[in-house]
Amino acid sequence: VLVEGKFLPPKGTVVTVDHADKRVSPYTVTASSREGGNSRLVLAEDPGFTWDAATKTSRFVFLPTTSYTGEHVVRLKPVRHWTRGRGANTG
Fold first, then answer.
1. Which residue in 25, 52, 62, 71 has the most C-beta neighbors within 10 A?
2. What HEC string does 12-66 produce?
3. pLDDT tens digits, residue range 46-67?
């Protein structure tokens, strides 16, 4: 997946793609690198959709074969980890 701008989450990070405020899909990053002024994310899962940049439309290839038009946003929402029994926040 090619993402606009600098966005380099580390391997193992889960990112989400918000499809025009209609659907959110999670993906696990296996690698990320710069490609020109953008970032290339390699995902563990098949994204399952095609993207038309000219019309800002995603079309899902699996059932149901729906499409969403509008802004599509890739997000990383950090999660803090709490080790049970140790009382320490290991975020």
1. 25
2. CCEEEEEECCCEEEEEEEEEEEEECCEEEEEECCCCCEEEECCCCEEEECCCCCC
3. 888 888 889 989 998 887 788 9
How far from each other are the two terminal CA atoms of the chain, in whole angstroms?
A: 27
27 or 77, greater pLDDT: 27
What single-letter amino acid sits at 3? V
What sign does the CA torsion over 47, 14, 19, 25 have? Answer: positive
Locate tokens 């399952």: which residue? 48
Q: Indicate the pTM of the whole model.
A: 0.73
